[in-house]
Amino acid sequence: MALEAGRAVAPSGNEQALGIDQLTAPSIQTIQAVYQALRESVERVDKDSRAVLDALRLLGDTLDLAKGSTSMGGGLGLLGPMALPIPLAMRGMMAPVSKYVQQRTGISLYGWMDFVRSTQKQFEEYLAQLEQVATLAALSAAPLRAPHEAAASVAAPEASLAVIDSGAPLRADKTLLLETKAKTRIWRPALTQINQFGNALDALLDGWREETRRFDSAGGKPQDDGWAQNFGVLFQGAAAKVTDQLAGARLMGQNFLLSAFADLGERASQFRDQVSNLSQSFADLEDLLDLEIAQLRARAGELSTEEVDLLRQRVAAAVLVPRLVHQLAAVRAREAAFRTRLQKLGEARKGANISDAARETLEAEYGDGLAAATAQLAALESEAAVWQTQGQPMLQAAAARLKAQQELVRARQLVGELLDEPARARLDALERELSKVSEATRVLESLTQPGTSKSHG
């Protein structure tokens, strides 16, 4: 049983069930499947990146406010000249706080502010790059042909892959993916420093609390930090009066900052979670970019037979098995929904709560939907059976290969052929692949074969 133009059709007498080699061989189907997974991954990275970017903007605005470099709103404007010392007083309060941040992180508060501004700009440029990849993936992840339609061409992969132009467009796609992969690889370690910004926020809050306690213990006036003396000299003998006025301004600035920092602690915690999510999304995106680049290289005949075999294992674990599980769940849910609607329709008929004309229309519509869903489910379960019997040995071989490669990388690192940093990066990549293989193996083992449902007659 297979699908044609969104509807299920019975296989012809000459049609044979596809084996695992045909399902996983580099082809238009697998290229489109990886593009679809790539499109979904780009969407996740875009979402997580924008969450981090929005957090950076908000935190940066708060820091600018603390520095006294931005307007504090119309409320202070109502105070007229009385409000003029407040930004100055706020900067006076934040000076020791900045020193506290530098002691804790090695970078001053204002250095972190510069980092936030530059990071925002680079994030925006990277997101623009991802938009190009998303557009490419959307165009390339066209609806897949039914497995039986590819049966003849799988035996000759070049014929199957010929649908994709091998000229300039193919090279342009590959160039864009390579460029995006390089930028993604750069961003992943950069996230470590972005995550350290959360430590700077913690230091900022601790320094702020310490300065506030020091200020409060002095009865609202500054202690020996040179603050009052400097202004005393500045105003030539009017130190006492100026100190009182500035102490009031400092208190107002403190209250204003207290409002601005009210949720900074919670946002610092959220920020770490957002960066952690983005780090995982980056890793998944980089892996998928690598897979699609390898698929395009296979199209161009640049991979050896052994490399193609390895590619098939990787695509199976990372894309094809998860997609099959998702499709099975979606089609089973759709079939159950049609059955429920038909059942409710029968109950409504018994209660004379619906007209005969409406009932006949809905009965025909739901019946057709149930028949299509049932046929599609049968086709997917047939494919699942192939994966369970033939896919497991493939995944077991993939797991053995990955473990052997891990041992080889460790040996190369031990003898000094590989430096620690590239060795760790390679081991991390192998561990991610091994995790995908293990998960694919687990879900294949858990797949059940429910009895074939009969369509509404």
Descriptive overview:
The chain has 2 domains: 29-303; 304-457, no CATH class. Helix 12 packs antiparallel against helix 13 (356-414). A hairpin with a 2-residue loop joins strand 1 (2-4) and strand 2 (7-9). The protein has 14 helices and 2 strands, in the order E-E-H-H-H-H-H-H-H-H-H-H-H-H-H-H. It has 457 residues and is mainly α. The protein is globular, with a radius of gyration of 31 Å. A two-stranded antiparallel sheet has the order 1-2. The protein has helices spanning 20-24, 28-67, 74-77, 85-105, 109-140, 147-154, 157-161, 168-217, 227-234, 239-260, 264-299, 305-350, 356-414, 420-446, and strands at 2-4, 7-9.
Properties at a glance:
single chain, 457 residues, mainly alpha, 2 domains, disordered C terminus
List the helices and strands and how they pair.
Layout: E1 2-4, E2 7-9, H1 20-24, H2 28-67, H3 74-77, H4 85-105, H5 109-140, H6 147-154, H7 157-161, H8 168-217, H9 227-234, H10 239-260, H11 264-299, H12 305-350, H13 356-414, H14 420-446
Helix pairs in contact: 2-5, 2-11, 2-12, 4-8, 4-10, 5-8, 8-11, 9-10, 11-12, 12-13, 12-14, 13-14
> How many DSSP helices?
14
Count of individual domains: 2
Oligomer: single chain
Alpha-beta content class: mainly alpha
In round numbers, the mean pLDDT is 75
Q: What gross morphology would you assign?
A: globular
Distance linking N and C termini: 18 Å
The low-confidence parts are 1-16, 69-86, 144-166, 221-242, 449-457
The ordered string of helix (H) and strand (E) elements is EEHHHHHHHHHHHHHH
Strand content: under 5%
Q: Order of strands across the widest beta sheet?
A: 1-2
Mind telling me the C-alpha Rg?
31 Å
Helical residue percent band: over 70%
Largest sheet entry = 2 strands, antiparallel
Tell me the number of strands. Answer: 2
